[in-house]
Amino acid sequence: MMNCLIKPSALLAALTLAQTLVLSGCGGSGDEIAVPEPEKAYPDYTQVTALGGDTTTFDASSSGHGYSTPAVNLDQAQLAQHLSGDLNFETAFTTAPNEEHPELDGLGPVFNNADCNSCHQRDGRNSTPIVPAGQDRIKLGSEAGIFLRISKAPDQPCLEGTAENNYCAPTPVPNFGTQLFHRGVLKAREDWQQNLFGGQADVYLSYELKTVTYPDGTEVTLKRPLFAVENPFDAPGESLNSSNVTSELLQSDVLMGWRNGMPVFGLGLLEAIPEASILALEDEADSDGDGISGRANYVFDAVKAQRGDSHPVSLGRFGWKANTPSVRVQSLGALRGDIGITNPLFPQESIAGTSMHDSYLTRTGFVDTGSGVDGEPEASAEFSDDVVFYAETLAVPARRQVDDAKVKEGARLFEQVNCSGCHQPKFVTKSSGEIGGLPMIDALKGQTIYPFTDMLLHDMGEDLSDARPDFLASGSEWRTRPLWGIGLTQTVNPQAGFLHDGRAASVEEAILWHGGEAQASTDKFMALTQEERAQLLAFVMSL
């Protein structure tokens, strides 16, 4: 006969199991049986660090110069050109003529800043203007990296660019153009003795506040920048409050919108994304029903026009509304526009042909015409090529803290609330071809990159609209901003803001301003717990 000796602990366990099964079978809760939680799925980019492929820098990602490193895969000749372009980027120009340093003259006659770095501080964003306590507003001056785009309201939306409709380009304000220059050289204005160093008009900035409340009761105060334009050169002292408004700038059909400077790293990689890869993400009719309907902007291409192309139109890739096609057009357009330095791509002054320019030339004896004594533009081809190359070849900073549990959870939540619906994580750059009309360098070819943008236009709602169309983009449409490097924004410049007008002081505030196609994602973000919101933000800040 078998000797059945059972330990008391084993007997107790057996009785407990039996009791559990009986209770479960008789409608008991069965809580004692643990059901394993399903394993969480994380996106494949959760722990990617080299956002810029082989161009990525791992050495400068936690410093105030985290955006200022050359792409690490440049050869010696390319590095030398990059460093030359770096010097050009920081060059501060002076009024012409400058006999001692003629290579520095040509500033203005009207402009927004005297060098590239003032709008792209340390290759990042400009400082957000602060209205001092006790003041209602401030006048933009030499420290401002923000400016106003201007244009006349179109009679009807432009659907396709042709030579007959100027390729859907914004309609210039007569005698002013499409960008408002709030600064000028000494005698830029006819009334220069009363308006020393005044530009086309004075621009004032103020803020209005509103409070957003999360479902859990947490409150966030948001600010919206407002502008006032006064004292235009064609009607000194006039404002919208004047009894008789005569200035072309102050007419009711003139549209205006703030523009902040943007970071300039990784731009060559963005231009190297195959056009087909971007267009594959278009969903203008929202065929998948997710509320997101990105579409491309098609814009005038000065490089193609200079080559004699019969249809000088290209996919828009850069600018807040994807209104420029290449780093070359963006950089040299800003050199001529923001600073007033003519160059081989834009050889005429931005205000050429206006009454202000004609008056300035007469008043100053035609010594600052936009051309040197040799008849060439103020910036040489070499200067221009080098500064463009610099902007094309700044390294993307590597991600940080990818092993942090909060960051990992944040990546999952980034997908859950569908941020990636517009902030497309991944592209592979093309393996051959041109950028900006020149053969692309090997360092940019075939790179797997994670910029977190689809490069398309999206309607972001009325709160972000400036009501000003730009080529095919409506007033409420904006290009998806790349998120790579965003976590270093305020390490590089502690006073930098986010969004096209710097209104957001943090990534959280930027999310809360998202409306339109992004409203569903904003609502989902707001519905997260405080801990989950912090996790999602930690992921974004790791980029």
Automatic annotation (TrEMBL):
Residues 1-24 form the signal peptide. The keyword Nuclease does not apply. Residues 405-543 form the Cytochrome c domain. Coiled coil: none annotated. Keywords: Heme, Iron, Metal-binding, Signal. Pfam families: DHOR (PF06537). One of its GO terms (molecular function) is electron transfer activity. InterPro entries: Cyt_c-like_dom, Cyt_c-like_dom_sf, Cytochrome_c_Peroxidase/MauG, DHOR. PROSITE patterns: CYTC (PS51007), PROKAR_LIPOPROTEIN (PS51257). PANTHER family: CYTOCHROME C DOMAIN-CONTAINING PROTEIN (PTHR30600:SF4), CYTOCHROME C PEROXIDASE-RELATED (PTHR30600). This is C-type cytochrome. It comes from Shewanella insulae.
